Amino acid sequence: MTNKRVSYSHLQNFIQTAMLALGLPPKDAQTVANYMADADLQGSDGHGVIRLPQYARRILAGGVNTNPNITIESERAATALVNGDNAMGHVVMKFATELAIAKARQSGMAWVGSRLSNHAGPASLYSRMALEHDMVGMYFAVGNANHLPAWGGLDMLLSTNPISVAVPTHLEPPIVLDMATTVAAYGKVKAKAQKGEMMPEGWMIDFEGNPLLDPKRSEEGFLLPIGGYKGYGLSLIVGILAGTLNSAAMGKSVIDFNHDDSSVTNTGQAIAIIDPAAFGDPTAFKERVDQLIRELKASKKMKGVEQIWLPGEQSHLKREEHSRLGIPISAGLEEQLRLVAEKLEIHKIQLQ
Amino acid sequence: MTNKRVSYSHLQNFIQTAMLALGLPPKDAQTVANYMADADLQGSDGHGVIRLPQYARRILAGGVNTNPNITIESERAATALVNGDNAMGHVVMKFATELAIAKARQSGMAWVGSRLSNHAGPASLYSRMALEHDMVGMYFAVGNANHLPAWGGLDMLLSTNPISVAVPTHLEPPIVLDMATTVAAYGKVKAKAQKGEMMPEGWMIDFEGNPLLDPKRSEEGFLLPIGGYKGYGLSLIVGILAGTLNSAAMGKSVIDFNHDDSSVTNTGQAIAIIDPAAFGDPTAFKERVDQLIRELKASKKMKGVEQIWLPGEQSHLKREEHSRLGIPISAGLEEQLRLVAEKLEIHKIQLQ
Asked: Which of A77, A163, A179 sits opposite B108 (nearest CB)?
């Protein structure tokens, strides 16, 4: 079955209307809607409008502060700790990333952490903000539910803690890595459940170590880290840098926002920005990245491989395709959005 | 067969004598010897004295500058680009890391890159330098030989490009992640060959995609990245941050130092330091890390698992064991070191 589609601007408008109805100030409603629609535009379908029902539930349950006072708690030339005052994560991270870019322009590099933030969508939304300034962006976050034990353990103490790095280019599409430190992000598990599909082997195992394939049974097991103990280590480090360093939730103190709509999550994130101009001519840097991309793409291929992909290249193509043809919305998601619209007494989403 | 052992101070002295004989100034000979012996002390046996024959060969072939003038090429409050003048990598990275720590103390965070550097041993040597200042250290490097293609490709354009992150603690041993972005580091392949052992499945495949198990046949295939395409992405990003950004070698321009003793490698590295004091009370941070460690270690375990390990914990125990009992040296390595000593006309290494 072909999915129906929605244009970016209509999707953005639908989300913005929902956020206004939920009590966000106009500017914040716009910010959240922009980022959520951007997520769908680039094909991050586990992190876009699919999250609206959950966000709405949390806001209505009082789990998110719709009128926040976001502040800088401590600051040096190249660092800041942002107190998100329990705002929507998108609003906090926009603030934090703009601050980091301004500091990097002065100091060459900046690292801004957040606490009392919330789920902010796909990691690459924020790393990519560096690109229009010809800077490198790096984003780290503590996931909002623990689905991963220590290597060899059974207690769920770690999350999918993602890493995103965006690198500017001259003529080629930018390089944008955006990855969970688990084989699959939990958003992808949710998307599989939404679509009624099974997961491939290797995404999750049950508590006895057997493969777990049904995404609806995801509570009966856990995600696997990439590279075994190495992915466990990466997830832990990302969690310390984005969470523990910022006095945000990490380990036992992480709130499972799939089962709790009202507790303050105290989500921690970190955005790091490097200004390549501090290391030499920025255009020459971007040209070197272009050359590297061309070397990789011109590589001889293994049998059966049609094309070498760069990180972010498929999202780049999705962004172009979705801009042209609209963003696909599954029937299941359309129904969920209809229920949200009904509850908030706003117009329905219009699909093509 | 039990290996013979050598004390740390004797090993350090042996290497220092060799480096002096190779023409390094006394201070640099001491630096290189300290770091190389530290590598063996913590069990990084692919990166310690095992590299001495190769380093000696490169220095004698004119591939390394023994009387370098290491300079800062460009600098801002939180960044610097260090020109290593083709010195031994250990000397360059000591300089870069000390600079980064001083800058982080002022600016809260610092990122220092190197170019015209060389192989510097295990990544954790430099991230760990942050610990005595109660800071977080992060190290990234471009490996000195390409053993990894793009995902789906066959041309060797990427290296094992390691990541190390060291996190200070209050009472627990520090957390020190030190990992290649491949399933196995190439140093581990070399160590297997040295010991005459086979590699486990999953470390390497041949050009047709079949498992490659004999480390002596390592030229007939390539290393596998962790998590498939994700590890490819991580290796690429580390290479861009440590190499391309610093105008150092990356991609096709990487010199394979296993087959070329005389070309300038133009190795790139990056050290990033965060001062937790810029984000709140540093002791409270270290106590939060301790608590996280205890949560992870107290976790319920999978059947058959005796203990949950933290990243760096096994190296920590190795460091204690080797300090007490000495550092194991295999018969094969002893013979190689005997040949180096003969060539340089210095005393032999004395084993217990």
From this structure: A77
Pairing of strands B163-167, B204-206: unpaired
Q: Which residues of A8-18 are buried (b: 16+ CB within 10 A; e: fewer)?
A: bebbbbbbbbb
What is the C-alpha to C-alpha distance for residues B279 and A347, in angstroms, rounded to an integer? 44
CATH number of this structure's domain A1-60+326-352: 1.10.1530.10
Residue A77: which of A98, A96, A105 has the closest Cα?
A105
Each residue's pLDDT tens digit, B14-69: 999 999 999 999 999 999 999 999 999 999 988 999 999 999 999 999 999 999 99
Separation between Cα atoms, residue A72 and residue A240, nearest integer Å: 20
Residue B153 DSSP code: B
Q: Name the nearest CA neighbour of B140 among A163, A79, A173.
A: A163
Q: Which CATH architecture has domain A68-182+225-299?
A: 2-Layer Sandwich (3.30)
The answer to whether the beta carbons of residues A101 and A135 sit under 8 Å apart is yes
* Chain B residues with beta carbon closer than 8 angstroms to that of A151: 308-309
Q: Give tens-digit pLDDT for A21-35.
A: 999 999 999 999 999
Strand pairing class (B109-117; B79-83)? parallel
Instruction: List, as one string, the DSSP characters of A4-55.
Output: EEE-HHHHHHHHHHHHHHTT--HHHHHHHHHHHHHHHHTT-TTSSGGGHHHH
CA angle A17, A55, A236 (to 5 degrees): 140
Note whether A144 and A254 are within 8 A (CB). yes
Integer angstrom CA distances of residue B73 from A248, A264, A277, B79, B273: 38, 47, 12, 11, 19
CA distance A189 to A218: 8
What pTM was estimated for this model as a whole?
0.96
Amino acid identity of residue A297, one-letter, is: K
ipTM score of complex: 0.96
- Nearest Cα neighbor of A67 from A17, A28, A16 is A28
* Gap between the terminal Cα atoms of chain B: 15
Q: What is the rounded CA–CA span in Å between residue A257 and residue A260?
A: 5
| Closest Cβ–Cβ partner in B75, B291, B301 for A154 | B301
- Strand A211-212 and strand B136-141: the pairing is unpaired
Q: Order of strands across the sheet with B109-117?
A: B71-76, B79-83, B109-117, B267-274, B136-141, B163-167, B175-179
Minimum Cα–Cα distance from B304: chain A residue: A152
Chain A residues touching B290 at Cβ < 8 A? none
* Sequence ranges of the domains in chain A: 1-60+326-352, 68-182+225-299
Q: Which helix (DSSP H) or strand (DSSP E) does residue A274 occupy?
A: strand A267-274
pLDDT band per the 50, 70, 90 thresholds, residue A194: confident
Find, among A25, A182, A166, A153, the residue nearest to B299 by Cα.
A153
Please list every residue in chain B whose beta carbon sits closer than 8 Å to the beta carbon of residue A275. Answer: 76, 79
